[in-house]
Design a protein that fits this description.
Blueprint (H helix, E strand, L loop, with lengths): L2 E4 L1 E4 L2 E9 L16 H29 L2 H4 L3 H8 L1 H12 L5 H18 L3 H21 L15 E5 L4 H5 L6 E6 L7 H8 L4 E3 L4 H4 L5 E5 L4 E4 L3 H24 L13 E6 L4 H7 L5 E5 L13 H14 L4 E5 L27 H6 L1 H14 L4 E6 L5 H21 L8 E6 L2 H5 L1 H5 L4 E4 L1 H9 L17 H17 L2 E4 L7 H9 L4 E5 L3 H8 L4 H13 L3 H12 L1 H6 L4 H6 L1
Parallel strand pairs: 3-4, 4-5, 5-6, 9-10, 9-16, 10-11, 11-12, 12-13, 13-14, 14-15
Antiparallel strand pairs: 1-8, 2-6, 3-7, 7-8
Helix pairs in contact: 1-3, 1-6, 3-6, 4-5, 5-6, 10-21, 12-14, 14-15, 20-22, 22-23
Bound molecules: phosphoenolpyruvate (PEP) and magnesium ion.
Length: 591
């Protein structure tokens, strides 16, 4: 048996190949004091290295814009801002002039001071910011110490699975997707800047693997499953064999999926399913459309702001929302208002450290407290309504008052737009995510104030089971098929039908074959899934009867344990699971 490492899923897809260990680290800077008469030369040397780094980062930003899109390009803005920041530059110059430190030592000293300051706040976003700081530190030090450019560390002579303690945005954009089969890191979260770029580059990736990089060698074979967040090192003959078999199946499956894109999303017995895409960045809308999405079921707008030093303006947001809506002029686009907090915080929101961020100041709570952040977003979304069928989706709603307050704010912003003569359509819809047991149990009340519901099973599972969704140690307990979850899904579905409003599911469960089967069986016929999984889920939908799904769901509702829920569903879906198992989610977990 190979050695299995569990981590955090970052970017979907399966890779198999030799490990390419990338060990990059901040170079050791010799302690050097320069004679007084050389201090100004050192100042010049530092400023020249800074200007050079700025030029390189601008080049990277521009090439990233051309290759991946404007939002991805902005990932380099925090580093560019740091290079201009008086808080970085002034102390560095002072350490050269007053303490007569060499340029690299003075810069390193200042950056380490900032790192120590940031580390004192226990905010998850700070980790991402530290990653930017490290990226910049390595770049400038390599220049000052005349070492090879840090990006040269990523050799890509032969295809492989890159394993590293951590990655940085600049290293990631320089990975060649044809040579980089996958990426696995000890650190890294879904919101790390490099993680966002890995998804845009469509490179399968797993983070949070703790000590993988110190336990493997270059050349060892590895299977990486980016959807499950798992790496198997040196798989044994039977694991390899089953992977090889699956590789053939995957190829056949992918060929078939390409066909599926053009077909309707409908069960064998004629039940149509609205199949939409989840996206993090506007550029992904086109990818969703190319994979057959009927609109966007979840646009996670907070990815426009995480890692930013300043709040994005109304105009910039309007353009981002409009761009997505224009990709789907005749279909619904669900724009979720900023779901900040938990593990996603922009630098401009000064967050007090919290003991339990997922139970803390999050999502709608932040927006309703920070109207300077929220109002421009509402105005930008309203302006996007002029271009299509926009649905405004509110995250983590627990109380009717939260929706009522948002309606008031929308009314005020509509008034403002009218006054300014800016077009919008008043036909947009407003609804909320059902992500807590409170919202699920109180769905009938919430339904009176909503035009639709979308169930966020990722959070609903976390809050129902009191299992932190980011804690890999608890992963076996994080079970979307727990009877308590199934009953809430049923309850929300019934309430929505009675209230005559649409209910969809946009959590990962909808992108899972058994999950989709259960949801359809519970009469939830609108699903939104991460855009890469659209064809696969459509194929699953086309392979069963809604009547069988309903029957299995009835049995699942009466099942006393998660295992029995899964059993009812597996029996009900029959051979379709076999088919979908080539996607890797089922079979890898059984390896
Ligand atoms: C969810 O909670 O299911 C959801 C879709 O939102 P997110 O994953 O962004 O929290
Ligand atoms: Mg959520």
């Amino acid at each position: 048996m190979g050695h299995t490492f569990e981590g955090v899923p970052i970017s979907g897809g399966i890779a198999f190949g030799p490990i390419r260990l990338v060990r990059w680290k901040v170079p050791v800077v010799p302690h050097e004091v320069v004679p007084e008469e050389c201090a100004e030369d050192e100042v010049e040397r530092f400023l020249a290295a800074r200007d050079w780094a700025k030029g390189r980062l601008e080049e990277l930003r521009d090439s990233t814009r051309d290759r991946l899109g404007p939002m991805e390009a902005r990932i380099f803005d925090p580093q560019l801002l740091m290079l201009e920041d008086a808080d970085v530059v002034e102390p560095t110059l002072r350490y050269i002039r007053e303490n007569r430190l060499s340029a690299p030592r003075a810069f390193e000293w200042r950056m380490l001071e900032l790192q120590a300051q940031w580390l004192r706040t226990s905010n998850a976003m700070v980790l991402d910011r530290l990653n930017d700081l490290e990226d910049l530190l390595v770049r400038v030090l390599h220049r000052l110490l005349e070492l090879p450019e840090s990006s040269d560390l990523i050799g890509d002579e032969e295809p492989g699975v890159v394993v590293s303690h951590n990655l940085t945005p600049s290293l990631t954009v320089q990975l060649d997707p044809t040579q980089t089969l996958g990426v696995a890191t000890d650190l890294g979260t879904r919101t790390s800047h490099w993680a966002i770029l890995a998804r845009s580059l469509e490179i399968p990736a797993v983070g949070g693997l703790v000590d993988l990089s110190s336990r493997v060698e270059s050349g060892q074979q590895a299977i990486l499953d980016g959807r499950q967040g798992r790496v198997v090192v040196e798989p044994d003959a039977s694991e390899r064999h089953s992977y090889e078999e699956r590789r053939v199946l995957i190829q056949e499956w992918e060929d078939e999926l390409a066909e599926v894109v053009r077909l309707d999303s409908v069960t064998i017995d004629g039940q149509p399913v609205a199949l939409r895409a989840n996206i993090d960045l506007p550029g992904e809308a086109v990818r969703g459309r190319n994979r057959g999405a009927e609109g966007i079921g979840l646009f996670r707008t907070e990815f426009l702001v995480v890692g930013r030093n300043a709040m994005p303006g109304e105009e910039e947001q309007y353009e981002a929302y409009r761009d997505v809506v224009e990709v789907f002029p005749n279909s619904a686009v669900f724009i979720r208002t900023f779901d900040l907090g938990g593990d996603k915080f922009p630098m401009f929101l000064h967050m007090p450290p919290e003991e339990n961020p997922f139970l803390g100041w999050r999502a709608i709570r932040v927006c309703l407290d920070e109207l300077e952040l929220f109002r421009p977003q509402l105005r930008a979304i309203l302006r996007a309504t002029a271009h299509g069928d926009v649905r405004i989706l509110l995250p983590l709603v627990n109380d009717v008052e939260e929706i009522v307050r948002v309606r008031e704010l929308l009314g005020e912003e509509e008034e403002g737009l009218r006054r300014d003569g800016i077009p919008f359509s008043s036909g947009y819809k407003l609804g909320c995510l059902i992500e807590t047991p409170a919202a699920a149990l109180d769905a009938a009340e919430l339904a009176r104030h909503c035009d639709f519901f979308s169930i966020g099973t990722n959070d609903l599972v976390q809050y129902t089971l009191a299992v932190d969704r980011t804690n890999t140690r608890l992963a076996p307990l994080y079970n979307p098929f727990h009877p308590a979850v199934v009953r809430q899904l049923h309850q929300v579905s019934r309430v929505s039908r009675a209230a005559g409003i649409e209910v969809s599911v946009c959590g990962e469960m909808a992108g899972d074959p058994l999950g989709a089967f259960l949801l359809l069986g519970l009469d939830i016929t609108a699903l939104s899934v991460a855009w890469p999984y659209l064809p696969e889920i459509k194929k699953v939908i086309r392979s069963f009867r809604i009547e069988d799904a309903r029957k299995a769901a009835r049995l699942a509702l009466a099942a006393p344990t998660s295992a029995e829920v899964i059993q009812c569903l597996s029996d009900g879906i029959g051979s379709s699971v076999e088919l979908s198992s080539v996607s890797g989610r089922w079979s890898l977990s059984r390896m």
